[in-house]
Design goal:
NDM-1-like, globular, 8 helices, Metallo-beta-lactamase, Chain A, 13 strands, binds zinc ion, RibonucZ/Hydroxyglut_hydro, Metallo-beta-lactamase domain-containing protein, alpha/beta, six-stranded mixed β-sheet, Metallo-B-lactamas, 22% strand
């Protein structure tokens, strides 16, 4: 089996793998590998060049054939920063996603390069704290924080912003000798434009960050109302298996949990606006169904965003 410090390789069907981000390492989000028969297709490229390098190696390890298409589901860095290892292949995204990458990624890299001295300082401090920490659990937490910072540092030093060369607007169908898959733009949802990959013959959809499993989905860069419509669109595809951007693959009824989450947050935020509550969202407790989802801080960012947009 292929081994990477960034992800675990999970087979979903004959010729289809999800590469699930490990808690530590430079992946941060999931990627997909699809054997099209005469070539390989890759869905998303992780958060860092170093994870992207392993992604390339995994694709060649599992399917000993040329890699042809790389899909970027949306502009967020944790789905596109491995692109540079595929500059010889064809990177595909929606035209809006490419524009947003152009707008955000070079700027992010410049900002992060300027922050390198601070990052070095944080790394030194963390190393010292780990040496002085005798509590095993705390030491483990500090070590995982350190490994995160080291991954970020490596990525800033090595990243070359690499944009898609082929863009599409609504739908593109890709044919291989063994399967045909569809890229579908669902419009504004998690971001201003999100792409899903649908394989009708496998009843599998790679849905990017339109679905997060046991993770708080991030609402602040998109449009929660049209996101709800996008979820209905995915439901109507009648897929058996959904591959989320974060968390393990899930069956289609899981979509209802994301719909419920968005609706719950909209109603909490509306209530806060109506009551003109002092806008300290931190007084709100995360509702029980979402209490154990990862990245609880995103819940508060989401609420602040919804209150702000309701006030507009
Ligand atoms: Zn995202």
């Amino acid at each position: 089996m292929f081994h990477s410090r960034h992800f675990n390789c999970v087979p979903l069907a004959e010729g289809i793998y999800v590469l699930e981000a490990k808690e530590q390492g430079g992946a941060m989000s999931n990627a997909g590998l699809i054997d099209m028969g005469d070539h390989t297709l890759i869905f998303d490229t992780f958060n860092t060049p170093q994870a992207g390098k392993d992604l390339r190696e995994a694709a060649l390890y599992f399917f000993n054939q040329p890699i042809k298409y790389i899909i970027n589901s949306h502009w967020h860095g944790d789905h596109v920063r491995g692109n540079q290892h595929f500059s010889e292949e064809l990177i595909v995204s929606s035209s809006t996603t490419r524009e947003l990458m152009m707008k955000t990624q070079p700027e992010w890299l410049n900002r992060m390069r300027n922050l390198l001295p601070n990052l070095d300082e944080d790394i030194l401090k963390l190393n010292a704290s780990i040496d002085h920490e005798h509590h095993a659990l705390k030491q483990k937490e500090l070590s995982s924080e350190l490994s995160y910072l080291l991954e970020i540092k490596e990525s800033i030093l090595t990243l070359k912003v690499t944009l898609p060369q082929l863009t599409y607007d609504r739908k593109i169908t890709l044919h291989g000798s063994a399967r045909t898959v569809e890229l579908l733009s669902v419009g504004a949802a998690h971001t201003d434009c999100d792409t899903i990959l649908y394989s009708p013959s496998d009843s599998i959809a790679f849905v990017g960050d339109l679905v997060a499993v046991h993770n708080h989905p991030l609402l602040v860069d998109g449009d929660p109302i049209s996101w709800l419509e996008a979820l209905t669109f995915i439901e109507n595809l009648n897929v058996d298996l959904l591959v989320p951007g974060h968390g393990p693959a899930a069956s289609s009824p899981y979509i209802q949990q994301i719909r419920q989450y968005i609706n719950d947050l909209i109603s909490i935020s509306k209530q806060m606006v109506v009551e003109n509550a002092l806008m300290d969202v931190n007084n709100i407790e995360i509702p029980e169904p979402y209490l154990h989802w990862k990245f609880g801080s995103i819940f508060y960012r989401n609420l602040e965003f919804l209150i702000k947009t309701a006030n507009r």
